[in-house]
Amino acid sequence: MHSFEPMAFAPIDELPALSLPQLQDAASFLTRRDRKYIVPADTVASLLDGLEAGTRVLEIDGRRTFRYSTRYFDDRHAAYFRALRKRPDRFKVRTRRYEESGECQLEVKLLDVRGRTVKSRFPHESGEMETLSTLDRAWLRSFEPVRAVASQLEPSVATWYHRSTLVFPDGSGRMTIDQGLTFVGEDGLWQRLESHCVIETKGPGHPLPFDRLLWSAGFRPAPASKFALGVCLTNPDLPHNRWRRLRARLAPALSGPMVASPR
Questions:
Q1: What is the pTM of this model?
Q2: Coil, strand, or helix at residue 257?
Q3: Distance CA 77, CA 39 (A)
Q4: Which residues, 6+ apart, have CB-to-CB distance to 133 below 8 Å?
Q5: Hey, how many other C-beta atoms are within 10 angstroms of the C-beta on 56?
Q6: pLDDT of 262
Q7: Mean pLDDT throughout 105-111?
Q8: Which of 69, 136, 193, 238 would be a feasible disulfide site paired with 181, CB 3.0-4.6 Å?
């Protein structure tokens, strides 16, 4: 993959900083309502001018943008098909590494009865992102939607990107801005979403002021997670009817040796 240099957004550079412990204390939101938006990068700065006063940005060792690597796990696309069919028992299992620190976590994301995302974490060896240990699988079996497939989970699509994290006033919500989102298929071929950012708002349920700002600018939540989008882009023969329009809209912005033509 060719190198990627994230854009610097002046409004983010001007925000007051908060530390990782402050972020975890103010707005961890392991149970939250997620809304994802795919926005042209040259539009993001003007949208950020509309941030609420008092918004802060995560800063660690003088950095405000951080590299994330993620490997998802699935069993013969069971998780993908549950997402495609909007099953209430859908799940995502992934390892995630924070590249600057080297910290790695095994994560499970489920839905609660209110349709909110519930994320659980388990420590994972940084150098073992592609594998699940016996202990990992035992932990995964503690989650009912994952139990039947925990022993069969194998590496699926991978992603990497650069992320900035913002916290809204009084811990009312969080927002992440991802750049250079790259999907890597099981065969190692990749695709990158060029000149677009993925903005994700995370809050207790109700729309946040920045959601309403995005709506007023004509942006609506994307119907696919990074996992689902990555699987359908890197496996063009799989059914993807729910995301047909999204794939068609993103096709001109994809680069890489494996750019699938939407059906």
A1: 0.94
A2: coil
A3: 28
A4: none
A5: 19
A6: 38
A7: 97
A8: 193
